[in-house]
Amino acid sequence: MSVVYDCSRQDTRSDGLTAAAGAVRSSRLVVLPTDTVYGIGADAFDQGAVQSLLRAKNRGPDMPVGVLVGSWSTVDGLVLGVPPQARALIEAFWPGDLSLVLPHAPSLNWNLGTTRGTVMLRMPLHPVALELLRDIGPLAVSSANISGRPAPATAEDAREQLGNSVAVYLDGGPTGEAVPSSIVDLTGSEPVLLREGAVSAEAVTEVLGTPVATPG
């Protein structure tokens, strides 16, 4: 049976964060608010929990799961290296609505789907998400919806779709307009904007000092 915690109150927020951390450490799933939409999360290094996340969303490994982090420094332990372009984008937009795709460190024991040796990383601008991430470390997170249905802007919307497949719901109130993060791929010879979301192509170009390519 899943439990919903009202994170607008300090007492229930503290209880909720404790329960969510315990659920993640027990290979269960949680729903948490972010600065874009509500996300469903699992321990990024627990392959069974990530598989449970994909099953809850009715999604296959061909659509890999991204990873949320609670600090800039966490990135250094997850990737082969952080190029200057990535550093510039992190400093400009993190925490915030920009996801970066980088080659992941080959020593990591995780399976986020068919990533072809890469990982998509983001540091969200939401106090509840950041507090949880700083407690338990990187989370594999995807939007908290059944694949093909709208991404939820409230915990109630997420629970209506995911039900008891999730152990703990952290209700941080409405997220506002459900705009996804922008995604920049830095694995090739030039940066590629895979998805233009909350951060515009013009804003990315301004930081990088060079036009960002788009697929196609």
Automatic annotation (TrEMBL):
GO MF annotations in UniProt: ATP binding; double-stranded RNA binding; L-threonylcarbamoyladenylate synthase; tRNA binding
Principal place of residence: cytoplasm
Keyword Nucleotidyltransferase: yes
EC number: 2.7.7.87
Reaction catalysed by this enzyme: L-threonine + hydrogencarbonate + ATP = L-threonylcarbamoyladenylate + diphosphate + H2O
Gene Ontology, cellular component aspect: cytoplasm
YrdC-like domain sequence ranges: 14-199
One GO process term, biological-process aspect: regulation of translational fidelity
Protein name: L-threonylcarbamoyladenylate synthase
Species of origin: Amycolatopsis antarctica
